[in-house]
Amino acid sequence: MAWDVLRAGVAGKRSLIKPDAETGGHLMERGASFVTLQKSGELRGCIGSLTAWRPLWEDVAAHAWNAAFEDPRFSPVKASELSLISLKISILTPPEPLLFDSEVDLLSKLQPGVDGLTIRSGRCQATFLPAVWEQLPEPEDFLVHLKLKAGLRADAFPKDLKAERYGTDEFA
Q: Which residues lie below 8 Å from residue 131, measured CB to CB, with a gap of 6+?
């Protein structure tokens, strides 16, 4: 389905093919997803949501479109690139709030390679999917880079910091 969206998009069409209720199964239930595109091993687009608010099939299709054609960090995918692109769909499990009283305590609760993590402080927010552990395998580095992504200082640990972990089921 995600590939159909990309192929239609490079042909100048926007295509959403709703699965039929009998064969769609869990795709018809609400779900949260991220779609990640890589070209020759480098990030080419990644868009998703943390909240399950629409049917999973629609969430995946919308994020496939947005990752390929509307990620502000990249130009839209061209037809000539399709053969060089790999696509990964990450279906998120419901988030679990983490209770902690210090940065050391938070770090001790992280499961490298397993947990996705969302942090919030004031208006600052960011998330890393579990796959980011491949680039940042040390919990300290993982959290520092996530704080920077959120717009926080690397050495800051705001008193109002909230954190949630989640898992993913991934499909390539």
A: 36, 88, 90, 168, 170
User: For residue 26, what pLDDT band results from cuts at 50, 70 and 90?
Assistant: confident
Domain count within the chain: 2
Q: Considering the domain boundaries, does residue 48 fall inside one?
A: yes
Residues 151 and 79 placed together within one structural domain of the fold: no
Domain that holds residue 12: 2-92
Q: For residue 145, what pLDDT is reported? A: 98
Residues 157 and 102 sit within 8 Å (Cβ to Cβ): yes
Residue matched to tokens 């992280």 = 110
Whole-angstrom distance, CA of residue 146 vs CA of residue 158: 14
Is 171 part of a structural domain of the chain?
no
If you ran DSSP here, which 8-state letter would residue 18 be given? P
CA 20 – CA 23 distance, rounded (Å): 6
Same domain (yes/no): 105, 74: no
Q: How far is 155 from 55, CA to CA, in rounded Å?
A: 39
Q: Output the pTM of the full model.
A: 0.85
Mean per-residue pLDDT, 63-72 = 96
Q: Is the pLDDT of residue 40 over 70?
A: yes
Q: So what's the pLDDT on residue 24?
A: 61
